[in-house]
Amino acid sequence: METDALLSLKNINVSFSSEEKENQVLYDISFDINSNEILGVVGESGSGKSVTSLAIMGLLPTHTAKVSGQILYDNHSLLDLDTKTLRSIRGNEIAMIFQEPMSSLNPSMKCGKQVIEILLQHTDLSKSKAKEEVLSLFEKVKLPDSIRAYNSYPHELSGGQKQRIMIAMAIACKPKLLIADEPTTALDVTVQKEIISLLKELQKEYKMSILFISHDLSLVSEIADKVLVVYQGKMVEYGATSEIFNNPQKEYTKALIHARPSLDVRFKNLPTIEDYLTDQTAEREIITKTQRIQQHKELYSNPPLLEVRNVEKTFFSKAGLFGKKEFKAVDGVSFKLYEGETLGLVGESGCGKSTLGNTILQLDKANSGEILYKGRDITKISSSEIRSLRKEIQLIFQDPFASLNPRLTIGKAIMEPMKAHNLYDNNAERKEKTINLLERVGLDPAYFNRYPHEFSGGQRQRIGIARTIALQPKLIICDESVSALDISVQAQVLNLLNELKEKFGFTYIFISHDLAVVKYMSDQLLVMNQGKIEEQGDADNIYANPKNEYTKKLIDAIPKGM
Fold it and tell me: Are strands 76-77 and 65-73 parallel, antiparallel or unpaired?
């Protein structure tokens, strides 16, 4: 059956079989992408977005995956093609940008060589002409120094630059269809905006179609002509972007639109997907300006818990045969943090946010300045005193999977810091406390004996939080602790952090590149750029009236939706 669409999926079902059972993950997925059109596919982790893209590319494992239905590309059935023909289309006519550029690029090969490989595979260009083409591509994707990028290994480039290399690789053969699978998930809002603009420009120039996959509906609204919303492998809504945004028909779509922190209203709790699906009429409690002023009056009437005075942290790298190159990661930073407060720390990658957090934790030693915790300068204390200080100042990591030992059950992982700091009399008591903690962070106590790989990203982040609060700390540094989560899961974790703060009286330093999230969480806000504090003050005031051009740029980069 012929179709005018460049790509047409008709009733696609995908299931994976194991020895025990067959697990269906996609149910009757159908959509069209016309020439020179962008389709956004939106849904949470596990909704089937990436499986759909891998089915189109023919990259699902043939021995375990069963695909039924029709995938027509240019009126040819991709499911009926032999491996050789499919390989000639893949990379040449249909290309893909993957979610994580670091794991998609070969770490042992220079970036230029990796893109040349694609051209030599699919075109008749000589090596010298291919090199010229790659440098031209690097200019096109706006890499700041194309020759340097060409000769660099992936680890020598920033996240945004690596993603640009991946885009250059994907468009090298001028494909008719580009599949972009979460291409901006872990990037700064400003870099994210640049990548979205770049994809739009390239789409117009090459007149290619794009299948843009994301969990962020606001982001998709900025790029897509049409939107498909998927949930648990099924189609929820499909239509023109303006129609989906301005007149969503399904509660799930409405929930996705509202799960992102509002920039205008401060809810006591963020509405989650579950809230919307169970009770759409529920009134959301709003924190008024008067309530906020009263809270702050009480907060700031006490002496500060932490005071950072003119802290500097410099790193040195070898520069050739002689001398050292100096890099000031933290440059004369000063601020006060009060008990029960959430201080937001925002800025782009490389601005010094994490280094400042590590310096407060005494994981990195400050070169100069003072860090006063409860009135005592902790830069001058002994290593044994630092060890006991760790009980009071804790960290929630960005990647909970990397910070959990894959060989330890989560129960043992949570008990481990209790044991290290001699908390409680015996393991039976520690186990009881751990089970209580699992319940506190919204996890089933039966998970005690399971391993990290058995959990979703949101569940692992809850495990990380349980492990952090096991020591009953006073101050918790949350370093990009929700940046890799779905927006709906992000809402659950942010609500949990606020709930725990209320119950246990925690004080947070909340580090993120996402100003919308930081604004929602924070009392005071520090905007950081190139090691310095650009702007500081009340979070709502800074957002409503930014004084600094850099802050304005960050605010402007937040996806606003339609």
Answer: antiparallel
- Give the per-residue pLDDT at 324: 67
Q: Distance between CA atoms of 130 and 120, rounded to whole angstroms?
A: 7
The contacts of residue 312 (CB under 8 Å, 6+ apart) are 328, 330, 331, 332, 333, 366, 367, 368, 369
Residues 6 or more apart whose CB falls under 8 angstroms from that of 263 comprise 516, 519, 543, 558, 560
pLDDT of residue 319: 52
The C-alpha atoms of residue 386 and residue 473 are separated, in whole angstroms, by 14
Alpha-carbon distance 344 to 519, whole Å? 7
pTM for the full predicted model: 0.81
The residue among 188, 224, 200 whose CA lies nearest residue 141 is 200
Task: Assign 538 to helix, strand or coil.
Answer: strand
The full DSSP string for 81-96 is S-HHHHHHHBTTTEEE
Residue 275, helix vs strand vs coil: helix
Residues 6+ apart with CB under 8 A from 544: none
Per-residue pLDDT tens for 163-218? 889 888 988 888 999 999 888 876 778 888 888 888 898 899 889 999 999 888 88
Measure the CA–CA gap between 307 and 360, rounded to whole angstroms: 10
Contacts 24+ apart (CB under 8 A), 403-408: 403/464, 404/452, 404/460, 404/463, 404/464, 404/467, 405/452, 406/451, 406/452, 406/453, 407/451, 408/451
Q: Partners of 306 in the beta sheet?
A: 337, 373
Q: What is the pLDDT of residue 186?
A: 65
Reference 391, options 354, 418, 426, 413; nearest CA is 418
Q: Are 474 and 506 in contact (CB under 8 A)?
A: yes
The conformation of residue 445, written as its DSSP 8-state character, comes to G
What pLDDT band is residue 344 in, cutting at 50, 70 and 90? very high
Task: Specify the DSSP class assigned to residue 261.
Answer: P
pLDDT at 3 over 70: no
**Cα gap 487→257, rounded to integer Å:** 9
For residue 307, the cross-strand partners are 336, 372
Counting runs of H as helices and runs of E as strands, what totals does the chain give? 23, 20
Q: Which residue pairs, CB below 8 angstroms and at least 24 apart, start in 279-283? A: 280/251, 280/254
Q: Which two tokens stand for residue 548?
A: 């600094």
pLDDT tens for 266-299 read 888 887 777 777 776 666 788 888 999 999 999 9
Residues in the chain: 562
Backbone dihedral angles phi then psi of residue 436, each to the nearest 5 degrees: -65, -40
Alpha helices by DSSP H, 287-445: 289-299, 353-360, 383-389, 400-403, 410-420, 427-440
As a whole number of angstroms, the distance between CA 418 and CA 391 comes to 9
Q: Around 330, how many Cα atoms within 13 Å sit in the side-chain half-sphere?
A: 25
